[in-house]
Amino acid sequence: MCEAERMEKNYYVCTGCGMLCDDIEVEAEKNIVNKVYTACRVGVAHMKEGTDNAVFRVGDKPVDEATAVSEAVAILKNAKNPLIFGLGTSSNEAQKLAIELAKKTSATLDDPSSFRLGSLVEALLQNRFKTCTLDDVRNKADVTIYWGTNPSDSHPRHLSKHSYFPRGKEKQRGWEEERTAIAIDVRKSHTAKICGNYFFEIPPGGDAEFIDALIAALSGKLPKTSYNFPPKRILELANILKGAKFGVVFVGLGLVYSLENLEPLFRLMDALNEKANFHLIPMVGYSNTRGFNENLFEETGYVNSVKFEDGAVKHGPEYSIVESLKAKTVDAALIIGYDPFSSLPRSIAKNLLEIPVISLNPFETLTSRNAKVYINTAVGGVESGGTATRMDGVKVDFKPVVETKRLSDEAVLKKIMEAL
């Protein structure tokens, strides 16, 4: 949807996931969203999360804004190797400020993509895969593969808005006649049930072998796997794929975690494009993880896990949050919009208890409760505006729905930068 049309109809953008749906209608009263239309169940919950309360805390003590920012600045000034982590729900503007802050403080900078889909996005930015937009999928795609992902639950409007059910400009007869949906996964998910007979259940860790078998089938050879997947079914799948006029592979964590590296996926996409026309889109979860990856890539050539030092940029797994906390190489942490105490293994997350932590988050979390400084920030897309990058790389502008006393991530980072 174009910006003019969206503004004319007063539509909002939902920042509940990486799809950034731009056709959301809301009703708000007294700066509280009470009704949400068009959004999925994830989006409705997200759009109703705003509140007018602003919380600033140092330790267990409530403080004012100036004191909280001053304490955060002192922590970063005293740190020799601070860690800045998170930013998957922050605007592009806030992310760029965080990169500048990391440079200024010689910090280690990372985001959740270092243990999620970062390698896939990096390969896309290096033009290792052919890709397309979700709008292309809606208008042109005749074959879609959901590999190691279950968008029916993780991105509930994905199939209805973009990939399978909609009537596209070139696919007016839709899923009944012009679209084929295929699921490849280790279990029969809700998405797999929609795909019906085109669900291919493989064992955990079996993706690389299945890829090899599929490549063989695409070449007309007899496909084989050590787990005895029926060769006839793989041959049938290969024939469907070879007939695709506009195919798309949606890749999720299930596939990425199963592979030691992306080499099998490179080979598969090359093989598919020798026979047909295939594109790849990563199933990014957070609203602006793709934005962080692109902003950091533009600045450094890397999408995550970097260390700024003496005007140079170092990169490697040792600069990810996981390895940094394991090795105890960081001596302070600024965590933005993320809750590592809940999401990381306890053996790793507990090391955050040994260093001062600054938490910027719209919500109370285990991380904010254990933080030296907690600043209760605005919910992006509900209480603050900016730009974000959709899972397919499309830039999206979003505006706030309601007003709030809470500062946005961007506003807090500006104050910290000015004080430094």
UniProtKB/TrEMBL annotation:
Q: Which GO cellular component does the record give, naming just one?
A: membrane
List GO molecular-function terms, semicolon-separated. formylmethanofuran dehydrogenase activity
EC id: 1.2.7.12
Q: What class of enzyme is it?
A: oxidoreductase
Pathway(s) it belongs to:
One-carbon metabolism; methanogenesis from CO(2); 5,10-methenyl-5,6,7,8-tetrahydromethanopterin from CO(2): step 1/3
Which BP terms from GO are recorded? methanogenesis, from carbon dioxide; respiratory electron transport chain
Q: Which chemical reaction does it catalyze?
A: N-formylmethanofuran + 2 oxidized [2Fe-2S]-[ferredoxin] + H2O = methanofuran + 2 reduced [2Fe-2S]-[ferredoxin] + CO2 + H(+)
Its domain of life reads Archaea
Name the protein family.
Answer: Belongs to the FwdB family.
- Put simply, this protein is called formylmethanofuran dehydrogenase subunit B
Source organism: Methanosarcina acetivorans (strain ATCC 35395 / DSM 2834 / JCM 12185 / C2A)
User: Upper lineage ranks?
Assistant: Archaea, Methanobacteriati, Methanobacteriota, Stenosarchaea group, Methanomicrobia
